[in-house]
Design a protein that fits this description.
The protein contains 15 helices and two strands. By secondary structure, it is mainly α. It has a domain at about 5-45 and about 150-175 and about 185-335. Helix 2 (about 40-55) packs parallel to helix 7 (about 150-170) and helix 3 packs antiparallel against helix 4 (about 90-110). It is globular. The protein starts with a helix and ends in an 8-residue tail after the last helix.
């Protein structure tokens, strides 16, 4: 193996690791705020890539109907709750809040020639279709069981993932797709060809990591989410709405997943069920940080990506085994480090 092959594998691993880093950060975020291991985080990635590919073909994406159905269901639940409390004046506002965006998106998608839209508009439409699914899933599924055990929340997450995979198969079919490249330029770094698409993925991941750091460290909403993560009941006592914190965490996770799907779509073929492996590899990185440390999770994700790239070159039949085996020593170390750690309610 010469230096050019090593450099190529490292480049490929860092590009893949950037996506895993974003997934890992979303997993840590959601778990910190809601104690939920978001198994369906990878589904946001695949939904985004498949939705963008559908738009590029000039077709109406099924994601619109999923968004509309979830919005109707959430609006119905909140409207019934408002009527039971005698707050009928809230119903028009709820209708506008839940159905405004899906209606606008429906009109836009039905009016314009989708395949002829600029790439930037196609990407913005994809983000607008996928990102609201996060808060809606929290409202429809997780909000009712928010105070239960981590194990039950994990079981619910698995059920949500299986449901989303089935819906994805129904909407997009079983064929894999790749989206159009965001940047096709390639330049030489010595003897190594470096794709601008790969640099865009890595730069976007680093930018998002930096924005998340600034959000949690220097914004009021970020500090509220951190407070909810550190002490849920204490946050409730000082007036922080934990339900809103949960929706915000799921919304950020869905946005991160949607951006990840846009970035990874041109680099690899994605299928309706590709999200599970993406979630698992992001989870491996998140485990390195104990599902609590953002920097360790991000750094570990890049390591997982590089390891997978080299394993794919030297032992492709065992690359998944090699990556997932990393979890065992980390879990053993965490169990020895925190032998009496109990779940907090």
């Amino acid at each position: 193996m010469d230096i050019s092959i090593l450099a190529f594998l490292a480049q490929d691993g860092l590009t893949t690791g950037a996506i895993y880093a974003l997934v890992a950060l979303a997993l840590v975020l959601v778990f910190s705020v809601t104690r939920t291991i978001l198994v369906c985080q990878g589904d946001f990635v695949t939904y985004s890539a498949l939705t963008l590919a559908t738009l590029q073909l000039g077709l109406m994406p099924g994601t619109l109907w999923l968004l509309l159905g979830c919005s109707l269901a959430a609006c119905t639940l909140d409207s019934i709750a408002a009527l039971r409390r005698g707050q009928s004046r809230r119903v028009p506002g709820l209708l506008a809040r839940y159905l405004g965006l899906p209606t606008v998106l429906w009109v836009v998608l039905d009016t314009f020639e989708l395949a002829g839209l600029p790439a930037v508009l196609q990407i913005l439409l994809t983000l607008a279709l996928v990102t609201p699914l996060g808060p809606l899933l929290y409202r429809l599924v997780y909000q009712r069981v928010a105070e239960t055990s981590v194990l039950l929340l994990l079981i619910v997450s698995v059920a949500v993932h299986i449901t989303l995979v089935g819906i994805s198969l129904l909407m997009f079919g079983a064929e894999g797709v790749r989206t159009d490249a965001l940047a096709e330029a390639v330049f030489m770094l010595g003897e190594l060809p470096v794709g601008l698409q790969s640099l865009l993925v890595i730069a976007s991941a680093l930018l998002l990591i930096g924005l998340l750091y600034a959000f949690f460290g220097h914004s009021l909403y970020g500090k509220a989410l951190r407070a909810t993560a550190l002490n849920r009941k204490g946050a409730q006592l000082v007036g922080i709405p934990t339900q809103l914190a949960g929706k915000a965490a799921f919304g950020l996770a869905a946005l991160i997943g949607a951006i990840s799907g846009v970035l990874i779509g041109p680099l690899t073929t994605l299928y309706y069920d590709s999200g599970f492996l993406i979630s698992l590899k992001g989870f491996v990185a998140a485990i390195f940080g104990g599902l609590a440390s953002y920097p360790i999770a991000a750094a570990s994700a890049f390591f997982v990506g590089v390891l997978e790239s080299f394993a794919n070159f030297g032992a492709s039949a065992y690359k998944e085994v090699i990556v997932f085996t990393l979890v065992i020593p980390v879990l053993l170390w965490l169990s020895l480090k925190h032998p009496h750690l109990e779940e907090q309610h």
